[in-house]
Specification:
Layout lengths: L4 E3 L14 H16 L4 E6 H4 L3 H5 L12 H9 L8 E3 L4 E8 L10 E2 L5 H21 L3 E4 L10 H7 L4 E2 L5 E2 L7 E8 L21 H4 L30 H13 L2 E5 L4 E6 L4 H5 L5
Antiparallel strand pairs: 1-3, 2-4, 4-9, 5-11, 6-9, 7-8, 10-11
Length: 292
């Protein structure tokens, strides 16, 4: 896997099948199929050039609130990568990103529980799929791959934007990726490859256009429906269907902090010991009627 990195958001260059060889076109379809064989419920391609012009990449560095990333390691890594707030570190030589999604049903809440410092089981499933997929791609096609971290501050990308541009769904009024199959009840991960693939999206799917948006009323911190900026200038944020820019990350972080502060110990069977279990709020997911 390639480790060298080139930083900073750049200009958009639209992916076009005419710029992709017939061999890469065939291989991209095979890789999507393999992702699902390994356990992904959804998968799609997007070019890094498209991602560099995505709403989050363009607007996150301008946000007045510096979010906490919820891990001191993210701050250390951000400094090591010489990143500004909200800036993405793009892996050098990579041209396309494969985004995968795994369904997270309401009746499997532990997929999102932090058990002490152990990563949630849903994230471990995603990491396993990506790790296996990277090895398979490198062995079968001799492409270089890069397993992208989850957090932007540690070298990751804006996964929701990437998934929407790859055609997995749209950004909803709840500021989540909303998929036709599962609604917003999915978890995401991604890898990059050093060849240009044809993007599989975006899609015209936009259920929020005909929804009364019950999600806006269910947030305990009222983060939804609150503008990030004092002005109403959200030029460019409409690039992704359903996105309005009315989401306050600082308010959402308050609820995440509350979840950590009120976490209690529970017995974890596979570890055979008690661990402090952090259960983050999912009201905006559970309220959404899509994909039920």
């Amino acid at each position: 896997m390639k480790d060298n990195r080139a930083t900073v958001c750049g200009r958009n260059m639209v992916s076009d099948s005419r710029h992709v060889s017939a061999e890469h076109l065939k291989n991209s379809a095979e890789i999507l199929k393999k992702a699902k064989e390994l356990g992904a419920d959804l998968a799609g391609w997007v070019s890094i050039d498209e991602l560099k012009n995505s709403p989050s990449c363009q607007f996150a560095p301008q946000m007045p609130y510096r979010r906490d990333e919820h891990a001191s390691g993210a701050h250390r890594m951000s400094r090591e990568l010489n990143l500004k707030h909200g800036e993405v570190s793009w892996p050098e030589g990579m041209e396309s990103v494969l985004v995968i999604a795994v369904s997270h049903p309401e009746d499997q809440p532990r997929m999102d529980f932090w058990e002490g410092k152990r990563s949630p089981s849903g994230n471990r499933i995603l990491m396993s799929i990506i790790k296996q997929l990277c090895a398979w791609i490198e062995q079968r096609y001799s492409y270089e791959t890069f397993h992208l971290p989850y957090q932007v501050g540690t070298g990751g990308i804006y996964l929701k934007d990437a998934a929407a541009l790859a055609g997995l769904g749209c950004i909803g009024a709840n500021n989540l990726l909303v998929t036709p199959e599962f609604g917003p009840r999915v978890r995401l991960r991604a890898l990059a490859v050093n060849v240009r693939m044809v993007s599989t999206g975006p899609t015209s799917f936009d259920p929020c256009a005909v929804c009364d948006k019950p999600c806006l009323e269910r947030c305990p911190q009222k983060a939804l429906g609150t503008a990030i900026y004092e002005s109403d200038d959200f030029q460019g944020l409409q690039n992704l269907p359903g996105r309005t820019g009315h989401y306050n990350v600082a308010y959402c972080d308050r609820e995440m902090t509350r979840a950590k502060e009120t976490a209690t110990e529970e017995f974890v069977e596979d570890l055979e010991e008690n661990r402090t279990i952090v259960k983050y709020c999912r009201n905006c997911e559970f309220t959404c009627p899509v994909g039920r």
